[in-house]
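Hello forum,

I keep getting stuck at the same step: I have a sequence, I want structure tokens, and every attempt I make locally crashes halfway through. Rather than fight my setup again tonight, could one of you with a working pipeline run this one for me? It's a single chain of 164 residues.
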Amino acid sequence: MREWFFAKPNRVRTLLNLWPPFFFSGIKILSISPDFRRCKVKLKNWPGTRNANGTQFGGSLFAMTDPIYSLMLMGLLGSKYFVWDKSAHIEFQKPGVGEVSVECVISDEMLAAIKENTAGGDKYLPEVVNIITDRQGTVVATVSRVLYVRLKPPFRPRNGEQAG
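Reply #2:
Ran it on my machine without issues. Output:
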């Protein structure tokens, strides 16, 4: 099932857009690159996404990046790795008025660091930071997320062997 899900990034996008936590929160995945390195997400502007002050609900702003990085890394690294969110923090900069968006990116450096730091079987906790902006490009919120990445037990080196 996992291989089927990650075989095509557009399949991941379509299914995430139908996933109730995103669908009913007004969160929409606009695109996922063919190599799982970039993902664009928007939060629609409709009454169901607004709080009592008429601005975007903070919980939906926070949810925009959850589970994006984990899924992107699962698509990149395959089924040999555990990938989870470990912790996250949001800092609101300005009330979100109207549609807002975020772009999640996995760089070559981040991917190399993950592979290097997990090769021996250890866990690795990379941090990603995303900036959520409104249509004018004004920063609405900053989301910091710590991921947990580790080779699954059958793929970890034994007794000093190198992973391979």
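The longest strand covers residues 139-151. If your local run keeps crashing, start a new thread with the error log.
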